[in-house]
């Protein structure tokens, strides 16, 4: 077998230019595939991070009836007890209470339906980094009543500027319509423009006052020590809090989980497409190589080289040809991925709107998918095997006597 | 004497469906161990076809061929490959050495296919290179050797597997006089000293002169089969 391996290795260097071209193609294909994976993984990691730390938290607590129709009367029962349990739970790092009302924002320019989030500024800043999202103005002044923070997307759409007054209309706990005039003190920008357009922040005590729910809260967003603790924390909290609905970020944002799964599959599909394209190049190269050596192969068969050994020879040649480009592709991908992971890759201002629409920032930080490296190598080896089949069959079908006449 | 090849009434027919052409026509052939036989005849007479049939590279349409008592005409192609590896040595007109292997590796290759251990291979390779007089060129690639030297390596390769006989198809056709004589000397010596059976197809008078037996083919039939005293030996 060693002589077959040795022959295969030497055979691929018989036409150096042709071998280098195919090796470079493999390297380029692997590089492109791994970079797509790294890019996707980085984007998804940042999207999940933004979702957890800027939108939902790791998990949320609601009254089980609240999310049916978002009726404000369904506040969290035994809030003090829930508050206490969360404070004592070892998995919980921080949490914040929110009052929520579905309502309408009206200005002289028009109106828009949205969710009004009543927040406690200090704990909200701590949990969802609201203060970091403010691009114009501030969180709340605490000097004046009825202040509101709106999203940049909404401000552009409704032509609302800092200091403008807007009217919020919603129903209170008795289903009576109430309104309040709020002055814009801050405009926020998040990585999710769609979310930004349909959410505004006011102070929780002021919203509660209008809702007629002095000490109530509809939602508690919880940040855990880490995402890995989520399943354990969910089980632990569920066993202690029977009267609340506990949902993790995957349940709260199923579109994000779907996106993560889809992107995972998509990155594999892209890799497979790249390898299929490469396979044709490899098949062509191997076929040329076999046709050029018809006489030599006929001679080996005449001397007594059996079909299995001939197949192994073609397989080894294809494998060497394919795998030789692999390390170069991997090294290049790891190097560039590490560079982009540190310095970021900006899609530029033109793509900002499009990226934010789907909840992504304009600067992407790659995350090399080391866990997919073994699978990628397996894909490449499989490609080599499949690519060798046709040339090998052509070689095996040769009649030694006829081949010797060529 | 021990019969190595016993071909009985063999024919090879082309264009069987339309106008049949007999490349070999009802040929009987017996080759004994230690023969130094030349198959001669004009182009298209069937020399190479007969060699291919005896060598198991082609199948006879009629008749039977036994090598050392083993019938090869009914063997599967896989069994034939194995049979060739163990029993027959080939020397081709165009040397046909594997260009990526050195001279030594080319000879060793056959033994590796046979699964012979490294120690025995090395010993055999050394002996064969001594016999062909190329001990100093064992590590040369075929492209670094002359035509004559390549053909001598091809002879060593043919003998590497200790075959029952060696089939040589026009072995001197591409060689100059000196190289051809040198090659014939080597083969003659191997025949004389080790009783290795050689069967040649040839046009070359030098080869014919050295043969102990000359079989003449015309239109696929044996028209003469004579024993002779080799010239110069």
UniProtKB/TrEMBL annotation, chain A:
Residues annotated as domain ABC3 transporter permease C-terminal: 269-400
Transmembrane intervals: 20-40, 268-290, 310-336, 373-396
Residue ranges constituting the MacB-like periplasmic core domain according to the UniProt record: 19-238
Similarity annotation: Belongs to the ABC-4 integral membrane protein family. LolC/E subfamily.
Protein name according to UniProt: ABC transporter permease
One GO term describing the cellular component: plasma membrane protein complex
Record key words, sorted: Cell membrane, Membrane, Transmembrane, Transmembrane helix
Location within or outside the cell: Cell membrane
GO aspect biological process, one term: lipoprotein localization to outer membrane
High-level lineage: Bacteria, Pseudomonadati, Bacteroidota, Cytophagia, Cytophagales
Membrane disposition: Multi-pass membrane protein
Keyword NADP: no
TrEMBL record, chain B:
Pfam family, one: ABC_tran
Residues of the ABC transporter domain: 5-231
Family: Belongs to the ABC transporter superfamily. Macrolide exporter (TC 3.A.1.122) family.
Annotated protein name in UniProt: ABC transporter ATP-binding protein
SMART domains cross-referenced by the UniProt entry: AAA
InterPro entries reported in the protein's UniProt record: AAA+_ATPase (IPR003593), ABC_transporter-like_ATP-bd (IPR003439), ABC_transporter-like_CS (IPR017871), ABC_transpr_LolD-like (IPR015854), MacB-like_ATP-bd (IPR017911), P-loop_NTPase (IPR027417)
GO MF annotation: an example: ATP binding
Tagged with keyword Transferase: no
Keywords: ATP-binding, Nucleotide-binding, Transport
Source organism of this protein record: Sandaracinomonas limnophila
Gene3D superfamilies: P-loop containing nucleotide triphosphate hydrolases
A single GO cellular-component term on record: plasma membrane
């Amino acid at each position: 077998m060693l002589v077959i391996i040795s022959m295969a290795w030497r055979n691929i260097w018989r036409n150096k230019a042709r071998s280098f071209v195919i090796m470079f193609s493999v390297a380029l294909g692997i590089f492109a595939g791994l970079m797509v994976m790294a890019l996707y993984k980085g984007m998804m990691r940042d999207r999940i991070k933004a979702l957890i730390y800027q939108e939902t938290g790791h998990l949320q607590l609601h009254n089980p009836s609240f999310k049916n129709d978002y009726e404000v009367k369904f506040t969290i029962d035994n809030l003090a007890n829930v508050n206490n349990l969360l404070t004592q739970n070892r998995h919980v790092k921080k949490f914040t209470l929110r009052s929520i009302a579905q309502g309408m924002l009206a200005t002289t320019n028009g109106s828009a339906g949205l969710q009004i989030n009543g927040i406690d500024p200090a704990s909200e800043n701590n949990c969802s980094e609201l203060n970091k999202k403010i691009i114009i103005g501030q969180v709340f002044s605490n000097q004046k009543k009825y202040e509101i923070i709106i999203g940049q997307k909404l401000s552009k759409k409704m032509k609302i500027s800092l200091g403008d007054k807007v009217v919020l209309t919603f129903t209170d706990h008795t289903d009576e319509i109430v309104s309040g005039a709020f002055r814009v003190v801050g405009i926020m920008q998040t990585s999710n423009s769609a979310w930004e357009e349909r959410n505004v922040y006011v102070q929780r005590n002021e919203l509660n006052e209008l809702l007629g729910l002095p000490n109530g809260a509809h939602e508690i967003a919880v940040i855990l020590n880490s995402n890995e603790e989520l399943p354990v924390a969910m089980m632990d909290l569920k066993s202690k809090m029977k009267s609340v609905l506990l949902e993790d970020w995957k349940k709260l944002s199923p579109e994000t989980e779907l996106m993560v799964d889809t992107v995972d599959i998509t990155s594999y599909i892209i890799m497979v497409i790249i390898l299929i394209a490469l396979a044709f190049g490899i098949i062509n190269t191997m076929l040329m190589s076999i046709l050029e050596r018809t006489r030599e192969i006929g001679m080996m068969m005449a001397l007594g080289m059996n079909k299995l050994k001939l197949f192994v020879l073609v397989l080894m040649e294809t494998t060497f040809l394919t795998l030789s480009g692999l390390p170069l592709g991997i090294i290049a991908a790891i190097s560039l991925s590490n560079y982009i992971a540190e310095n970021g890759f900006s899609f530029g201002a033109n793509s900002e709107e499009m990226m934010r629409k789907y909840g992504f920032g304009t600067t992407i930080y790659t995350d090399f998918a080391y866990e997919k490296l073994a699978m990628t190598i397996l894909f490449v080896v499989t490609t080599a095997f499949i690519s060798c089949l046709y040339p090998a069959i052509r070689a095996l079908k040769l009649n030694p006597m006829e081949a010797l006449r060529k | 004497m021990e019969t190595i090849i016993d071909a009985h009434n063999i024919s090879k027919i082309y264009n069987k469906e339309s106008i049949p052409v007999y490349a070999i026509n009802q040929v009987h052939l017996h080759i004994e161990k230690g023969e130094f036989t030349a198959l001669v005849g004009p182009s298209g007479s069937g020399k190479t076809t007969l060699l291919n049939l005896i060598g198991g590279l082609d199948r006879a349409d009629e008749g039977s061929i036994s090598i050392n008592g083993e019938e090869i005409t009914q063997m599967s192609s896989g069994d034939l490959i194995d049979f060739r590896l163990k029993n027959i040595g080939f020397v081709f007109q165009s040397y046909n050495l594997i260009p990526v292997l050195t001279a030594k590796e080319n000879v060793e290759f056959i033994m590796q296919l046979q699964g012979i251990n490294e120690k025995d291979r090395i010993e055999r390779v050394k002996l064969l290179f001594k016999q062909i007089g190329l001990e100093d060129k064992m590590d040369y690639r075929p492209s670094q050797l002359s035509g004559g030297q390549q053909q001598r390596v091809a002879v060593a390769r043919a003998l590497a597997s200790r075959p029952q006989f060696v089939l040589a198809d026009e072995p001197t056709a591409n060689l100059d006089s000196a190289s051809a004589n040198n090659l014939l000397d080597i083969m003659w010596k191997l025949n004389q000293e080790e009783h290795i059976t050689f069967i040649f197809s040839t046009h070359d008078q030098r080869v014919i002169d050295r043969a102990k037996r000359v079989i003449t083919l015309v239109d696929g039939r044996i028209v003469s089969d004579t024993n002779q005293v080799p010239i110069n030996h």
